[in-house]
Amino acid sequence: MSKWNKNWFACMSVILIAAVALAGCSSPSGSPATSTPAKSINLNGAGATFPAPLYTKWFDEYNKLTGVKVNYQPIGSGGGISQITEGTVDFGATDGIMTEAELTKAESKSGPILHIPMTSGSVAVIYNLAGIGTGQLKLTGAVLADIYLKKIAKWNNPAIAALNPDLKLPDAAIAVVFRSDGSGTTYIFTNYLSKISQDFKSTIGNAKAVKWPGDIGGQGNAGVAGQVQQIPNSIGYVEMAYAEQNKLAWAKLKNAAGNFLEPSLQATTKAAEGVSLPDDMKIMLTNSSNPEAYPIVGFTWILVYVNQKDKDTGVALAKMLWWAIHDGQQYTEPLSYARLAESAVSKAETAILSINYQGQPLITR
Amino acid sequence: MTVKSNTASTVWARVGDKIFSRLTLFFSVLMAAILIALLIALGIDAWPAIQKFGLSFITSIEWDPVNEVFGALPAIYGTLLSSLIGLIIAVPISLGSAIFLSELAPDWMRRPCSFLIEMLAAIPSVIIGLWGLYVMVPFIRNPIEIWLGSNLGFLPLFSGPPFGVGFLSAGIILAIMVIPIITAISREAIVAVPVTQREAMLALGATRWEMITRAVLPYCRSGLMGGVILGLGRALGETMAVTMVIGNGYVLSPSLFSPGATIASKVASEFNEASGDLYIGSLIELALVLFAITLLVNIIARLLVWRTVSVRGTGE
């Protein structure tokens, strides 16, 4: 074979490979979804990192069942909201309720948006006190708010001592650890403290990142837990699942009914039971009135548009969400997520049934 | 520049030259254009914050996402302070090891030792950060900070509770990260000093110490300076490792023990979950401020290098 021939051959094979690759790339996104069979439908989602392990499990199981492929990018709730606003994903995911400004921006483009609850999580208050094990320290929301406001500075403060007459609390400064990165965990935590304490609400407020008066910021659950484990006499807050897996000492908190509870999956689910949930599900479950509920609990939501732009994608999306709030719930507890309460499931059903394409509902009961 | 010639081969060569020069021109313009495009894009996204806060953005110590009031001063302070601590620790160590490796070390030590130091630069910063958080920070809290606090606690520099995380830890982490850069460049600079310089000095009856300090180091001063500047550049922009050990407080504190923040750590921490034009705009304006600081540092450094070069040029 001459050199020229060899080159020509190489050239042609490169072109051939490129052509095949191009064809392969363009088929899923390029061709209209209406003509493709259900098997090749892809759903794209992005958002909250907190439910990502559960979503990954769900979408894997759902793919085995139906062949529908769901890609989920855990880029953070803020990213999820902006991607669904821009319309670059089929669904977003968030641990916080969209603000009015965010809703206006998204809805002016593509119509009303739904918050559909998928699971709920709670925030554990963790501490590092010599000789005091997990579940031994009791705190109320008001005391916790004052600790995070730096108004209660020492562990032997009368307010803490009164709640824990049996414990020997040290005469030491409380090292307060907070989440430095914006997060749903901080959102739920500050939501709870804002509900309990007017002072906290007016000086710090409720957001994914707030202006803490002190002391140390940790990056992520691991950062907060790391600081609390290392620094004697410190207090911090992390997702319950994280605290459980890492065997961190957590506090019992007094709920609205006056009972002291440790965080648990059951106590998390209870937060949505016996309370009146609004139809749009935009509710923070913190400080639930249910006597068996842990007080720092929040939903995590999937965000979808009511008016779907593509029929087949819309059908696949609605079916997937329907599966998630029913059959999907069996995967929650093994992964340390709380099951949706029955009342929340029925509200979520109504929301999913309202998803439509040009006024026609996409799935029926 | 161009030499006229009629032979075919030189015509072809001229075409090649032209293509080559156009191509390289295109590349360099492209890079400059990317820089300018970057600035414009950042400027547009930061505009809501620039418009709202004006100059007070740089002087305010407030950072309150709930009430949407943003100021950069604690982050600017933290960036400069942690880099300064880093350089104070790194420069003597780097120069010392560079001198040892190039002038004093026995042959069998030279290669493995400098190889190991350069390997330090290859460790990803997130790994250095994890090591810092779990190994270095506890050691800095106890014994270092507790000892400093109880013996020198009257100085504002060493006041406050010893958390371990804070400016001091950030500075030490930065020192570890810039030492390999400064060492490698300084070593190259010292090795490049002509042997004749050394021989001349020794011939005058100088000791080894006098030879190094009077003949070698002054000769390669601009190279050493360049190494320090590259190190500083890395320190100013370092994000991940610093975020993990600086404690992420947002305060202006004279204490080295105080948790603080740098511009890069602030942006990295909050950008993911930031919402609203003003909040995102403020984070992007922070990035612009960091850009300006690095630019300024580079300009000052260039001027310094030119000065030392010209001082040497006119003869000492």
Question: At the fourth CATH level, what is the homologous superfamily of the largest domain in chain B?
Answer: MetI-like
SS strand fraction of chain A: 15-25%
Q: Give the end-to-end Cα distance of chain B, rounded to a whole number of Å.
A: 38 Å
Tally of structural domains of chain A: 2
Question: What is the total domain count of chain B?
Answer: 2
Explain this structure to me?
The complex is a heterodimer of chains A (365) and B (316). An 8-stranded mixed beta sheet of chain A has the order 2-1-3-11-4-8-6-7. A 3-stranded mixed beta sheet of chain A has the order 5-9-10. Chain A has a two-stranded antiparallel sheet with strand order 12-13. In chain A, α5 packs across α7. With 365 residues, chain A is of the alpha/beta class. Chain A is built from 13 helices and 13 strands. The N terminus of chain A is likely disordered. In chain A, α2 links the parallel β1 and β2. Chain A has 2 domains: 148 residues, D-Maltodextrin-Binding Protein, domain 2 (3-Layer(aba) Sandwich), CATH 3.40.190; 149 residues, Periplasmic binding protein-like II (D-Maltodextrin-Binding Protein, domain 2). With 316 residues, chain B is an all-alpha fold. Chain B has 2 domains: 53 residues; 259 residues, MetI-like fold (Orthogonal Bundle). In chain B, 76% of the residues lie in helices and 1% in strands. Chain B contains 12 helices and 2 strands, in the order ααββαααααααααα. Chain B has a two-stranded antiparallel sheet with strand order 1-2. In chain B, a hairpin with a 4-residue loop joins β1 and β2. In chain B, α3 packs antiparallel against α9, α5 packs across α6 and α6 runs antiparallel to α9. Chain B is flat and about 70 Å long. The two termini of chain B are 38 Å apart. The model of chain B has no long low-confidence stretch (mean pLDDT 89). Chains A and B meet through α3, β7 and α9 of A and β1, α5 and α11 of B.
